Amino acid sequence: MVASLFFSTPEPPSYRAQQIFSHLTDSIDRGQRKRPLGLVSNFVADQLPHCIAEIKGSKRPDEGVKALGRSINAMIASTDYDVQLLNLPQPDFAIAKTDIHYLVNCAYQMSAFAGLHPVEAELTVGEELSRLARLSRHRQPSIEVLSYEDMILANPVQSDPRVYCLGAAGVEERDFCLGHQLIESELQLAIDALLELRDGAGADARQCLAVCLERLESANCVLTRFYEHMSPDLFGQFRVFYGKNPYKNRLGPSGRFSARIVAVSVLLAGEELFQQKPQFYRDVYRLSEYYPQVCIHEVFRWLSPGKSAELTPTWLEGRADFPRSATISPVMERHGPEIGKLRASCVYALDQFTRMHRITALKYTIEPGRPIVGVEASESVEAVLSQRLLTAARP
Ligand code: HEM
């Protein structure tokens, strides 16, 4: 029996995959309210998009954003949110942390929009909100800006989404997060099957790889829906809110920081990736604080067997062999060519995902010149977008 799952399991993908980006409605149906921080959560879910729209349309956005910051801080000061935050059960805490970081991110992004000086931007974020944000990171260590985990994994997009935009752009923004979440669910199922194969005594290799292939192909279908149905105009409206922090040298939330993509890649083709794309591993370790922490540290644990997960493992510096035990490669050696072909099909499907993703990124961000959020100035975007592509993936 394989050790039970270490990642929180997302909702299973559903018919919703076929519905994202359908542009049939321009309002969000909030099925089940998730408001762990009471007034603060109500404000984020119900009021924030209206406040943003008002500031954007006003003649004095600088005054508007400062007033918004003051009212958020007054709201936080009026109740003892510290105790509330620290006592929430974990799933509610994750949503509360998202609410707090949505507010912090909004204050910075709107301060930049209004042309505020860095000192004024810090005052706009305010002491009460900053303190609550620090407290949330104290309970769950994470990067001090809105993370992929906050925006995609913890955001209750299926029942009570947190978004920055109103109307059709808000619905598209919700579907953008939902599409990512659906892909994350598919990746988790692929990971489960690969872990069963790698760690389960007597696992049925054909069955495990067939499930993995099916899930990766399903993830590809969701990604294709982004490419075919997402509106470039609506995307442009919400994308700006998820940019790099304009005042801190910090990257924005990006699919680049999906730890599950890393996990599937390592399990399926970790050694080949190391041989062909060692930079991929260097970047994951270098940017590790941007990833969902529990999941990425579990992957690091696989990659440093017998040791506590290192920050730069010796194999990455060429001082030891790559830890093949992190991957399904050792198990594959016990099987014949038929199972080998099935694995090659999985690797091909993963590569197809990367290819499909690259043309999607080109269509929506690079070609129209929209901000790149998860790439540092010193990096080449093209290199990032092909950092996991294998040269011999075709089965
Ligand atoms: C329309 C949808 C999408 C667009 C326009 C897009 C755009 C980008 C861009 C511009 C990058 C470079 C880093 C950055 O600036 O953030 C990137 C990286 C990345 N994104 Fe996306 N992305 C989209 C959807 C997704 C989805 C649904 C996933 C799935 C989790 C994902 C996973 C990744 C990964 C893993 C990388 C790093 C490159 C790689 O390893 O292949 N992206 N994306």
Strand percent estimate: under 5%
What structural class is derived from the secondary structure elements? mainly alpha
Mind describing the biggest β-sheet? Answer: none
Helix amount: 55-70%
What is the approximate shape? globular
Give the N-terminus to C-terminus distance in angstroms: 30 Å
Count of structural domains: 2
Rounded mean pLDDT is 94
Q: Architecture of the largest domain, according to CATH?
A: Up-down Bundle
Radius of gyration: 22 Å
CATH class of the largest domain: Mainly Alpha
Written overview of the protein:
The protein is an all-alpha fold and 395 residues long. The chain contains 16 helices and no strands. Helix 1 runs antiparallel to helix 2, helix 2 packs parallel to helix 5 and helix 4 runs antiparallel to helix 5. It is globular. It starts with 38 loop residues before the first helix and ends in a 10-residue tail after the last helix. The N terminus is likely disordered.
Q: What is the secondary structure topology, with strand pairs?
A:
Blueprint: H1 39-57, H2 61-77, H3 81-87, H4 90-113, H5 118-125, H6 127-139, H7 148-154, H8 167-199, H9 205-229, H10 232-239, H11 259-276, H12 278-286, H13 293-303, H14 329-332, H15 337-366, H16 381-385
Helix pairs in contact: 1-2, 1-4, 2-4, 2-5, 2-6, 3-6, 4-5, 4-6, 8-9, 8-10, 8-11, 9-15, 11-12, 11-13, 11-15
The structure holds protoporphyrin IX containing FE.
Protoporphyrin IX containing FE is lined by residues 179-180, 183, 223, 226, 230, 254-256, 258, 261, 354, 357, 360-361, 364-365, 372-375, 381, 384-385, 387-388.
